Amino acid sequence: MTSTIDRAVGARSLARVEGVDKVTGRARYAYEYDADGAAYAWPVQATIAKGSVTGVDVDSVLGRDGVIGVLWHGNAPRLRDTGDPVVAVLQKPDVAYRGQVVGLVVALTSEAAREAAQQLPVHYATTDHDSVLRADHPSLYEPDRVNPDSDTDSVIGDADKAFGESAVRVDVTYRTPAEHNNPMEPHATTATWEGNSLTVQDSNQGGQVVRDTLAKAFAIEPGDVRVINAHVGGGFGSKGTPRPNVVLTAMAARVVGRPVKLALTRQQQFSMVGYRTPTIQRMRLGADADGALNSLSHDVIEQTGTTKEFAEQSAIISRVMYAAPNRRTAHALVTLDVPVPSWMRAPGECPGSFALESAMDELAVAAGVDPVELRIRNEPAVDPEEGTPFSSRHLVECLREGAERFGWVGRDPRPGRQRIGRWLVGSGVASSTYPVNIVPATARVAVDGEGRYTVSINATDIGTGARTALLQIGAEALGVGTDRVTILIGDTRLPRAGLAGGSMGTNSWGWAVHKAATKLADQLAAMSGAVGPEGLEVTEGTAADVKAMESFSRHAFGAQFVEVRVNVDSGEIRVPRMVGVFAAGRIVNARTARSQLIGGMTMGLSMALHEEGLMDAQFGDYANHDLATYHIASNADIGDIDVSWLEEDDPHLGGTATKGIGEIGIVGTAAAIANAVYHATGVRLRSLPLHLEDLLAAPNMR
Known about the structure:
Layout: E1 2-5, H1 19-24, E2 39-45, E3 51-56, E4 67-71, E5 94-95, E6 101-107, H2 110-119, E7 122-126, E8 145-146, E9 150-151, E10 154-156, H3 159-164, E11 168-176, E12 179-180, E13 188-194, E14 197-202, H4 207-217, E15 225-228, H5 244-256, E16 260-263, H6 266-272, E17 275-276, E18 279-287, E19 293-305, E20 326-336, H7 349-367, H8 371-377, H9 395-406, E21 418-420, E22 423-435, E23 442-447, E24 453-456, H10 466-478, E25 485-488, H11 505-526, E26 536-541, H12 543-547, E27 555-567, E28 573-583, H13 590-609, E29 615-616, E30 621-622, E31 640-647, H14 669-681, H15 692-696
Parallel strand pairs: 2-16, 14-15, 19-20, 24-25, 28-31
Antiparallel strand pairs: 1-31, 2-6, 3-5, 3-7, 4-6, 8-9, 10-20, 11-18, 12-17, 13-14, 13-16, 18-19, 21-22, 22-27, 23-24, 23-26, 27-28, 29-30
Helix pairs in contact: 7-14, 10-11, 13-14
């Protein structure tokens, strides 16, 4: 295992193959595709939090200013049940949350559709609503499973008894707010019908599930639906499953008999595409006097909507990170009149790490043990709950290398001791982890008579550099330069592949590409490289390979170190530098990997200092539903970010030996920042984001 810094060179640092197309505008996104005679759709959203639609005055806007269609549940085409209530739009009068789609206006221009949608009279019958998460809510219950398909609870030993007998104890509650996905490209669709065949250009993280959903909804064969997502401007989980926009656009196109385009506004996305649930997390850690854990309990309360259950697996990180002979994790949900939460970058591990890693810092303080050393002392030999061996685990090495790169040695553990002018200075650390996810995929690799290769797979590049990484994997397996290979992705007419999510894209797609390319290379070698004008192709899938994988606990790990400065007059928090060291299997492309890890850490900083959905209980809606009031990190918030990784040679990961890096960067960042704020000020903040007024209210800051 060797240390690899971010200045890797050569093929490992290949520039994005689509980069020029993106910066010159040649790359087409969902809303930008040409569609002759296209009309434009605009959703009408409920202005009540709960109740029903009793009527819509369609005639008041239909036919004026180019308006050619108005849909609502009273006249919309009937859809077949897809199994996902989120996309069952305009099918019944019930209003489950404020912002739900209750109508759709279609016009010859986007401006006309928007104006008519804003003026369309919608009549409601309202009932009382409840939209505030609290720990004592009467509807609190335990879900059968938590995302994606894990046990709701886990129990080993007697955590309560061991906690009571521990020499050092931490019993604290942490809170995280609702956080909203805001990809650069909004959710958008262009839909065109030709007879009974449907083509959609749609911004999503996986065209296959969109195709299957549309086929079910409109009662047509999957082969009659084509989904194109060649370029996608971000998703962060919000585009992992079909959202109302794609079904609405296809519905409108069928009704008006012409192509239709729809792009959600930033405001509409806050209620229509999912968000990270707020959490209430109680952590109880019991340890010996030297900090060795003997009891770990992690209890989580979250919210879900009334139309669909989503249970984020926020306590799951505590099942894998540290050794403790007695342990318990549990999840509970409160059903509220709110939009259904969903995936957001590193669902589960991200909010869970804030609680776990903050509590570990509190335990270190209580035990008088250095926070890095405390984590090393509690390193497990095998998976703490499953008992299976790790395929590879280098968290300790990440912690040690991170401490060296950061300059941790010699840190005065006493809070509030370092000061530069009117700024208190502190440092914090947190561990990171994310599971290795692999699903079956199929790839086709072909060579023509002139020695040019084409790799085809219905993968999705959501801005991560997946297209480039797959090109590299294919070229490497073929033994040719990347300049001789063309990569085709983002089209359901290509071989089937799973979605871009769960950090499983390169792991899953890359394995299929590697397998097909290797087989083609072997065939060419047997033919002494002679290929006729008709060319040669190979198609290979990995379903059997994935099923046959041995039982190991597969995870990426990392360590994050942060320096903060807190102004004693204003309470303002600045983060001048962050250091992240990760162990995530083989890194295919150093340049895009660095970008992913920096992006994750930046998003974690945004989580720590800015992002907060503020629920207005009276209206049952998040009051700050735009980027003017829902704050995210900007360039001015980001100081120096030092990213590096340890190259792991893990033989138990499949064809590409990768672990996935899209999400681990955000895991632990917020806790590291909160821990650093404590070290700077002596004030322990247990709710995100970290508010300056909470710092100023503390006696330590005066």
